[in-house]
């Protein structure tokens, strides 16, 4: 699944409007119907609902949802923040539809905001700002966000939690971002959803199909994609009932050291489970017995060193090579790794200690065979990228 920056999402909206064709207000109505269904599927009509709408199209979505929920007998109170006296055209249209409804308690805030009482029984719908936000919230909007976050009500964010920018949030102000329990993203996920530091704001998220133009999505380029089960299924090749292990390649795994046999065992099992027909594990003598006992399907090639990887091995007869799990980081192993990579022509997967050692020899990464893969966790990636800090929490 493609993931687009906020600027591209706006273009996809425009592409859909032009090529379907459909009026922007009707596309907003379509989004509101999807949002309303998602909400009514989860919360019963006796749930009191408070809607916070901003002056843009995210606010327009929220107002349309408020109208539809009221039409379904939900008790709805709306706060539309229009501090500059300027609403987007579609937000203005939905304001005019909502403010005349007797079923909706409507407030348009231009100056002073008196916060409503929010109980644990309430559902808050956050429609203040969408993913197009490009700077941290401040002033009155920041105060509203802090009030919502301090309340005990359940919070649903429309498209993205208000205050959370679509991509880069490194310099955002955390206290000025809505902490949603649920986020209903329209059509596609936002890149920000996939960063661990944003999980506390996004909560549980789901995608709602608003039928953006498929051709537009297909033709629009992006640097980001999210791997899904369907993508994996497409990569799986059917296997003949007459196939045998010799048909599915021979993999080499260089792993393990004294006290780290478990890493080589787990990696060996994973390699076989992923579909390799044959597997050879190159490991020190101290790992030999446990490997042959724990993974009898694998062959074991013993390193000349009894305790750790010290002597490179020939990779010409293998279709894939994995290096790193449980290797340790002593000087002999580091030298053997560099020599191994210098002469390896087979695609290699580098993991764990192999990456940690290469952090001291990043030039070696430029010589990796085509098709090679690096699998760092955040700390390993931080070491590989030198001074670039990988955010994992605060």
Report how far the terminal alpha carbons are from each other: 29 Å
Q: How does the overall form come out from the CA principal axes?
A: elongated
The topology string of helices and strands comes to: EHHEHEHEEHEEHEHEHEHEHEEHEHEH
What is Rg?
28 Å
Main β-sheet, in a few words? 7 strands, parallel
| DSSP summary, beta strand count | 15
CATH uppermost class of the largest domain = Alpha Beta
How is the CATH topology of the largest domain named?
A: Rossmann fold
Report on this model:
One of its GO terms (molecular function) is NAD(P)HX epimerase activity. It holds the Pfam family Carb_kinase. Residues 228-394 form the YjeF C-terminal domain. This protein is of the alpha/beta class and 394 residues long. The protein has 2 domains: 2-229, Rossmann fold (3-Layer(aba) Sandwich), CATH 3.40.50; 244-384, Ribokinase (UDP-N-acetylmuramoyl-L-alanine:D-glutamate ligase, 3-Layer(aba) Sandwich), CATH 3.40.1190. The chain contains 13 helices and 15 strands. The strands form 3 sheets. It has a 7-stranded parallel beta sheet. A 6-stranded parallel beta sheet has the order 12-11-10-13-14-15. Strands 1-9 form a two-stranded antiparallel sheet. Helix 9 (261-273) links the parallel strand 10 (250-254) and strand 11. Helix 2 packs across helix 3 and helix 3 (57-71) packs parallel to helix 4. The longest helix is centred in the first third of the chain and has 19 residues, at 24-42. The chain starts with a strand and ends in a 10-residue tail after the last helix. The model has no long low-confidence stretch (mean pLDDT 96).
